[in-house]
Amino acid sequence: MAETTVATKSVKFIITRQDTPDSKPYTEEFEVPYRANMNVISGLMEIQRNPKKADGASTAPVCWDSNCLEEVCGACSMVINGKPRQACSALIDKLEQPIRLEPMSTFPVVRDLVINRERMFGALKRVKAWIPIDGTYDLGPGPRMAETKRQWAYELSKCMTCGVCLEACPNVNDRNSFIGPAAISQVRLFNAHPTGEMNKEERLDALMTDGGIEGCGNSQNCVRACPKGIPLTTSIAAINKDTTKHLFKKWLGM
Amino acid sequence: MKGNSYFSRKLHSLLGIIPLGGFIVVHGLTNYQAFERGPEGFSNGVHFINSLPVIPLLEIFGIYLPLLFHGIYGLYVAYQSNTNTGRFKYGRNWAFTAQRVTGVLTFVFVFWHVYQTRIQVYLGHITHEELGSTMNLIASNPTYFVLYVIGVLAAVFHFSNGLWAFLISWGITIGPKAQRISSYICMGIFVIVSALFILSLVAFRGDEFKEAASAVLTLTNIG
Ligand code: HEM
Ligand code: SF4
Ligand code: FES
Q: Is this model's pTM higher than 0.90 or not?
């Protein structure tokens, strides 16, 4: 008896779909057979294998993005039961059904659950989130980083540019040019690095222009939403301090 | 610097505390004299303020212009924000939305209140000495009283929560612990300053503020 109930157990999905970047979104319901230890991605794979809606009518398979399947690449981020998070680490057993999947519509939707996170990579370029070491001759090893600093800097380096913090932020939207929390935290990371520090003013300057750090309105949703537990609000406040200092130094010509 | 929202936002933030935040606290303390010392105390407060040097300049550069800049730019900032308290039901997210809602309420309330009081003095309908009885008329009207309590609570919340945000925007409170402690202090400020204003509104209802009211019958044109 027990076996038959397990065999008929199923997982219900309500998925927000969109055929092209400009078309209207609509929802479709799906019901897939349950297996132990499923996650949202394996549910989506099931739909791909047998693209039929809950009412039996066939439909185009649902598109999504994923890569690492271990919550380090950020590609599979979507809104699951109202919360932005990674589909690969969203276990079916821990989700309330029906499971609602929506794209993170703060970003341009490419198709179904696939979004374009280009603006996040653009933001990293804008704040120069790298350490310039290229030159015409070998500069030798850089200064060492203190272990105490390395420990918190390592936490910041876990950012996978997933976009969840931007989706959670009420100030990231079409009316607002705010760069978003992730890039600000990366400025703190690269400015903490002993070699990166040598270009810290350039990164601060980038955040002191239109759509920079001033866009933060302190809702503090980002720090709660970040799947990597990155202390985003601490990073923002710390960079607020550095940009303020930098502002006064520039005014005083120091 | 032109067209850089970093500078305008920094100015907006600064003006919210200096001078506007300072003004609202002094204003609360002056009004509170009405509760503690009655009409005497209140008119002493009004006299003291009006005896300050270069009052018109102080008013223009210390209050009107900062208020207009912070208020109008603030409306734009509020317009640029979404509300997602349905999805993220956290206290800080509610405060974020409340900061914007109370900003708009304060905007409406301040213009109405200034019209009822300071503008009437400018227009010559009342004198500075008659402000106590003007407030008596307003506070005795039940509808106005309720609207004033709402306006005052909105303005004081906006100031107190704004102070909390200001400390972050300028990089003064950085870690979660510092921000938590400052949120308790700002909540305390909210309670105390609200109490100052509400107690004075209650005091203005007293008959002792009415005596001069007959002299201000012209006031019927208010509201
Ligand atoms: C007249 C109408 C007003 C409007 C529309 C308005 C609007 C706003 C808005 C939208 C913010 C949020 C900025 C942000 O967090 O990013 C803000 C912040 C603030 N406001 Fe106002 N405000 C008004 C009046 C006032 C008054 C009278 C005061 C002082 C008593 C005040 C003090 C502050 C402070 C201290 C902040 C925080 C600044 C920061 O985040 O650094 N505001 N205001
Ligand atoms: S800070 Fe956290 S939520 Fe934001 S992009 Fe990085 S990993 Fe994602
Ligand atoms: S697939 Fe890489 S985070 Fe989910």
A: yes
